[in-house]
Amino acid sequence: MKIELDIDNLPDISELSQAQAELILRICQAWEPPPRLSLSKWAEKFFKTSKGSFRPFGYQRGILDAISDPTIDTVSFQKCARVGGTMISIIAMLFDISQGRAVGMVQPRESDSRDFSQDELSPALDLCPATNTLIADAKKGGRNTVLHRQFLNGASLRGLSAGSPASARRI
Question: The whole model's pTM is what?
Fold first, then answer.
């Protein structure tokens, strides 16, 4: 069945039956984009740890929101050990992956990138409901490796070595 729609001669909304109006409303709601969330709100909603849901501390919230603020180009922060810096970077990577972006993860050596991907990133990808359905496995035509992953929404993740400038050629 072919349906043609003449945009110039649309019926007045008052001429529609109740069922037609409800159908149009449901269609519009289905195509409504999700609400824009700050990175800290996104993390609270989607990021999970092995211990359960994530709730950022105040200083983490500020850093996360600065990362997702389109008016801020660079975010730098000085930190001590064990304050969640690695978790903040993982959350930012997962958010970008969920949005279909290309992500480059730079570590000092290739072995560090490999270890980080296996030990930190893979478990986070699996636990996060916004990314675990995007992982392309071999059954779905994926050719993922520890250092290079493609996702079903077009996003990609590449582990890079800071000691090899050539590794940054193909992000």
Answer: 0.75
